[in-house]
């Protein structure tokens, strides 16, 4: 590995050998070597505070000590690593604990499917099952939704660029306006109801509606509690299955284990991945209302559904949910984050920032094209890792590991504040605008 005069490691090998499809290494151009808790270090010894948390796959932090210990013990006693969907002790233990710690106390009753170990695979399984159960083909998705990059998941994803990558028409879906998409005055559930009710609308009765309670990739758009309840009611009334894609917002991101708990709704199918493995190891679940579990054995299978290392770490991570303490802490840190962001927005009104989100999924949306990207780039140069979201990358997104300490959170906010201050000064002087007019 070569360290350049700039003090940064050279990315030459990646530029030469890795496909152009690579993306995050372009936003964070260095070579990482070590990670612990909320910090990453690069080959030059530089430390970076992580406000990205592996896109939500590292809710319990990097190399969490308690989880790591269980993993090492398991490997050292030659515990089964790969098992397709054979019964293993590691899976048994995870299933029992998930039932006891997560489902039972919340009054939720689900059969648990292990699809391939990605969010997209959980979404595919949910769409397939909804179609099989209802015998109908249409799925309603929402504007600005993100559900993954495989064909079925893309068919209910909003982003034009990502959809285009499919290379084939994405069929059998209808996109409807998410909460707040049209204006504050339009109730988009009533709007959708008209389409479903009207025999002249051109929209046939869907098998399912798939929704994120907060659209993380789509720009941190938050659905109101009221809207989610009306959505559930509409689905019940019409016999439409409700699928909540909790791949990113689940596992505590918004403060509760499931993001829909605040609304008190009970989806028919729930997709979980990202942090369910607890340690950044690949794993996904599809939770299915028991009466809908009409799969034939092997009807949705895959080679890597039995990632036992992830079952071990997932089971250990559930310990965070045995009491309300973890949840309370996330809410408290969420408040701290919110007030920090609101201060920044108020300090630089000419940037026209708007604070969005809840829990430890928040961000600032900017009207000016390119501003959020510029801020994230500046933040990285100061040792803070954060990403943009939204169709036009208009939102600077903050999603640290949930185990972040208050002082780490404050440090990160300080770095972000300085970045915004500098960019604000440059945009005042016109420098930023000139650079972006090219
Ligand atoms: C990340 C994500 C997915 C896709 O998960 P992959 O593991 O990347 O396939 C699906 N839905 C949501 C809401 C996500 O955030």
Report on the structure:
With 438 residues, the chain is an alpha/beta fold. Strands 4-12-11-10-7-5-6 form a 7-stranded mixed beta sheet. The model has no long low-confidence stretch (mean pLDDT 96). It folds into 2 domains: 165 residues, Aspartate Aminotransferase, domain 1, CATH 3.90.1150; 257 residues, 3-Layer(aba) Sandwich (Aspartate Aminotransferase, domain 2), CATH 3.40.640. The structure holds pyridoxal-5'-phosphate (PLP). The site of pyridoxal-5'-phosphate (PLP) has 16 residues, from helix 6.
Integer count of domains? 2
| Main sheet: strand order | 4-12-11-10-7-5-6
The strand count comes to 17
Highest CATH level, the class of the largest domain: Alpha Beta
Protein name: Diaminobutyrate--2-oxoglutarate transaminase
InterPro entries: Aminotrans_3, Aminotrans_3_PPA_site, Dat, Ectoine_EctB, PyrdxlP-dep_Trfase, PyrdxlP-dep_Trfase_major, PyrdxlP-dep_Trfase_small
Pathway: Amine and polyamine biosynthesis; ectoine biosynthesis; L-ectoine from L-aspartate 4-semialdehyde: step 1/3
GO molecular function, one term: diaminobutyrate-2-oxoglutarate transaminase activity
Short description:
With 438 residues, the chain is an alpha/beta fold.
């Amino acid at each position: 590995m070569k360290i350049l005069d700039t003090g940064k490691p050279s990315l030459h090998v990646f530029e030469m050998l890795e496909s152009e499809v690579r993306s995050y290494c372009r936003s964070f151009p260095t070579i990482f070597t070590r990670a612990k808790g909320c910090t990453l270090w690069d080959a030059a010894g530089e430390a970076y505070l992580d406000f990205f948390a592996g896109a939500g796959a590292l809710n319990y932090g990097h190399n969490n000590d308690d989880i790591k210990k269980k993993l090492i013990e398991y490997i050292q006693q030659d515990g089964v690593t790969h098992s397709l969907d054979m019964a293993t002790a590691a899976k048994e233990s995870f299933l029992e604990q998930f039932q006891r710690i997560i489902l039972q106390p919340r009054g939720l009753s689900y059969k648990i499917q292990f699809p391939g170990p990605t969010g997209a695979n959980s979404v595919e399984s949910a769409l397939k099952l909804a179609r099989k159960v209802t015998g109908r083909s249409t799925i309603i998705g929402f504007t600005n939704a993100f559900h993954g990059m495989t064909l079925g998941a893309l068919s209910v994803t909003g982003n034009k660029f990502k959809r285009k990558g499919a290379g084939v028409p994405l069929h059998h879906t209808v996109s409807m306006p998410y909460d707040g998409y049209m204006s504050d005055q339009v109730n988009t559930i009533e709007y959708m109801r008209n389409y479903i009710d009207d025999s002249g609308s051109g929209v046939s009765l869907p098998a399912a509606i798939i929704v994120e309670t907060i659209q993380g990739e789509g720009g941190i758009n938050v659905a109101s509690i009221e809207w989610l309840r009306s959505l559930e009611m509409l689905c019940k009334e019409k016999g439409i299955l409700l699928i909540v894609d909790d791949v990113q917002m689940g596992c505590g991101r918004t403060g509760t284990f499931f993001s829909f708990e605040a609304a008190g709704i009970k989806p028919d199918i729930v997709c979980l991945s990202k942090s369910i493995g607890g340690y950044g190891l690949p794993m996904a679940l599809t939770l299915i209302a028991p009466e809908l579990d009409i799969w034939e054995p092997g009807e949705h299978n895959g080679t890597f559904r039995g990632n036992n290392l992830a079952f071990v770490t997932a089971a250990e991570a559930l310990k965070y949910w045995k009491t309300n303490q973890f949840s309370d802490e996330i809410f408290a840190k969420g408040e701290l984050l919110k007030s920090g962001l609101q201060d920044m927005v108020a300090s630089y009104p000419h940037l026209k920032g708007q604070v969005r989100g809840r829990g430890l999924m928040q961000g600032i949306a900017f009207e000016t094209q390119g501003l959020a990207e510029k801020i994230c780039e500046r933040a990285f140069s100061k040792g803070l890792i954060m990403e943009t979201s939204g169709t036009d990358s208009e939102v600077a997104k903050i999603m640290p590991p949930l185990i972040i300490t208050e002082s780490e959170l404050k440090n990160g906010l300080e770095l972000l504040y300085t970045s915004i201050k500098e960019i604000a000064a440059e945009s005042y002087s016109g420098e930023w605008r000139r650079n972006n007019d090219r």
